[in-house]
Amino acid sequence: MKSNKFLNIVENYDTIAVFRHQNPDGDALGSQFGMVRWLQNRFPNKKVYALGENNHSFTLFPQSDDVELKGEFLAIILDTANQARIDDDRYELADQIIKIDHHPIVEDYGSLRIVDSTRGSCAEIIADLFINLDEYSFTEEIASYLLAGILTDTIRFSIETTSSKTLRTAANLVDYGANISKLNQELFTRPKAFFELRTRLSQEVVWKDKLAYIILSQDLLQELNLKEDEAKMFISIMADIIEVEIWALFIEQQDQSYRGSIRSRDITINTIARKYNGGGHRLASGVRDLTTLTLEEIIKELAKTSLS
User: Fold this and answer.
1) DSSP secondary structure string for all residues of 151-169
2) Are strands 211-216 and 206-208 parallel, antiparallel or unpaired?
3) pLDDT tens digit sequence for 84-105
4) Quick check: 179 and 274 in contact, CB under 8 A?
5) Is the pLDDT of residue 164 over 90?
6) pLDDT single digits (tens) 214-231
7) What is the rounded CA–CA span in Å between residue 285 and residue 267?
8) Which residues pair with 99 in a beta bridge?
9) In the predicted model, what is the mean pLDDT of residues 116-123?
C-alpha cells in the first residue's frame, strides 16, 4: 500500500521539507500545515519545515519557516500538479520527492506519487492517509487544518467531486476535534469592506452568451487597492447566476500578460484551459501568460462553449 511506502520513505530522513503551490489557497495551506504538524507529532526528533512565501490572507494558518536547508532532505510536495508551480525552488535540491495531489496529472514527478483526481481536495487524501497510518497522531489542530482544506476546495461540499468518501473523511476530522462551525466562520465571513468591493466589482462583469467574465487591469487593481492574489476570490461574484454556464476572472499581471481563473456549472473547461498555458479540474481551471490577443481568443471560445 502507498501509505506504508510513504511511511517507509519518511522514516529514512532526518529532515523533511513540505512544499505547496504558488499563491496558495486554503487546500494548499491546510494540506501543508496538517502534514507538517502530523510529522512533527509522529516523529518529534525529525526537522520538519513548511516552505513557501507568506503571501496569503488566511489568518488560520501559521507563517512558513525561514530556514536554510542543509544536507540530505526529503521533499513532500502537496496540491501541485506541475513543478513550475511549486513555491520555493529548493525542492530541486531534495534527495527524494513525494507528490500528493488531487489534480489531473500534468507531470509525473516524484519517486512516490499519491494522486487521486476524483477527490475534492488534497487535504482529503492526506487525512485518509494519516487515518490509515496512525489515527493517534491526530490533534485538534491537525484535524482543523485538514478540514479547512476540504471546506475551501469543495466550496463547503458543493462541487461535483464531493463524494460520500469526502463527507466520511470530514466526519472523521470532526471526531478528532475540528469545529466545522468555527472553521466556516473563520474561512468565509468577510468584513464590510469586502462586501463593498464585491459590489464595485460586480459592475465590471461582462456578459457574452452564457459566459460572464471580469477583466481586472493593473490600473483598476491600483484604484481599488486590491492585490492580485486577493482578487482571485471575487470570481464567486458570478457563480450563482442561473443564466450563466461558464464564468471567468482575468487579472492583468505586472508584465501586462493575463492570468485567469475559469469555472463552469457542468461544461468541461479544462480542455480549453490546456490550450492557453493552463489546466485543472473539469469544472475549475486556470490559465496564464495570456496576451491581449489570446485573451480575446479564449473569451470567444468560452462564450461559444457556454452554448453547448
Assistant:
1) HHHTTTTTSTT--HHHHHH
2) antiparallel
3) 899 999 999 999 999 999 998 8
4) no
5) yes
6) 999 999 999 999 988 788
7) 12
8) 77, 113
9) 95
Asked whether residue 279 carries a pLDDT value surpassing 80, the answer given is: yes
Place of cell 520527492: 97
Indicate whether 1 pLDDT > 80.
no
Q: Round to whole Å and give the CA distance between 166 and 153.
A: 11
Instruction: Output the pLDDT for position 216.
Output: 97
AA letter at 152: T
Q: Give span(s): CATH 3.10.310.30, the chain.
A: 192-305
> Span 192-305: which CATH code?
3.10.310.30
- Among the four given CATH numbers 3.90.1640.10, 3.40.47.10, 2.60.40.10, 3.40.50.410, the one describing domain 2-188: 3.90.1640.10
Coil, strand or helix at 38: helix
Domain with CATH 3.90.1640.10 in the chain: 2-188
> How sure is the predictor about 213, in pLDDT bands with cuts at 50, 70 and 90?
very high
Residue with cell 499563491: 23
Q: How far is CA 47 from CA 50, 70, 87, 145, 298, in A?
A: 10, 11, 19, 20, 46
3-state SS track over 239-257: CCCCCCCEEEEEEECCCCC
